[in-house]
Request: fold
Amino acid sequence: MKYYSLNSTKNNAQTSFEEAVVRGIAPDRGLYFPNQIKPLEKEFIQNIEKYSNEEIAFKVIAQFVNDEIPEPVLKEIIRETLCFDFPTVAVEDNVYSLELFHGPTMAFKDVGARFMARCLGYFNRDKQDETVTVLVATSGDTGGAVASGFLDVKGVEVVILYPSGKVSDIQEKQLTTLGKNITALEVDGVFDDCQDMVKTAFLDAELTEENLTSANSINVARWLPQMFYFFFAYKQLKAKNKELVFSVPSGNFGNICAGMMAYKLGLPVKHFVASTNINDTVPQYMATKEYNPKPSKQTISNAMDVGNPSNFIRIQTLFDNNFEELNQLFSSFSYTDKDTRETMEKIHKNSGYVADPHGAVGYLGLKRYQQAEPNTLGVFLETAHPVKFLDVVEETLGIIVAIPEQIKAVMDKEKKAHAIKNYEELKSYLKGR
Reply:
């Protein structure tokens, strides 16, 4: 298998997995995409409950890594990546939460960050004098997950751009307090500004010697492992014998795109719902067939504050840019902060379950779809622990959220970040280190 730039064609698929991981983004600024997707054996899907999570993950990812990482090494990378649980929790009849926050930074992005860090560590194993700089933009949880995943990885420096005042206090602590090979840049702007700076840096000829790569979901090694979640959920719920619907809180659309990749591999899913906050570029596209990106707006579900989601082009590519075919499998709905708070209260009152703002948006999208399909089994993704949004959760629900040990470890540490305003300041920082 090779990878090609989505600004090019499959016929130009000459890029290896290693090159796609190390580069992050293609020289023509396009995202990398596999030139083929081979469905898994039906027997494997039919007997998935007989396999461990590690065995499932290997089956799912192997074709995309090719033989570029030896099988024993890849299995060890998977073992180290999946060292925590991914439980489905019953919230009400036919509605489950898939909890993806049991990792070291309590966010779903721990899996992709840990997998990519270990792949990059393997690819750099013999490069004694070379340092790769991982440049990443975050709207919230990516920064902490990448910081944790890459901490002390030999030959890797991490530079994280985040929008000032637009991530939660705990999220900021997680990405600004580790030190060592992790540096945080606090940007005077929104997430889209951070993301644009990162993309511009990759294509800046004057930064070629900096060996830049990305750890956003634009990077195939961050994006593809997210397929694992959907297989793990199916394994747990298969015995229910009901058609499965996933509702995914969506910002940059990497997670839901991974779910739809899982579908293309043969995972039995009836429908996907991309649930967003008021940053509604994709819901508007699904309603009008016109894609009009816009500046992002700040909300209480800040990890979804994305006005121009990078990964939506990958979703379109999965369906050969056929809107009608996409529309059969995929819906997208948007919700306000008021909707989100009311839903957090409703879920907690009815079931005692504490959803974070992103999970609440996912629940809303799921319930809207199930109005027309009430006999489906719905799963909304709970992408971060409620403690990551402590002020919003406690104020909305009137409860005290216990602080997990993973969070206590960073609460009292000192924030260290460099303030920048524009791309030229980023470039100056990268060249002057």
Observations:
- The longest strand covers residues 156-163.
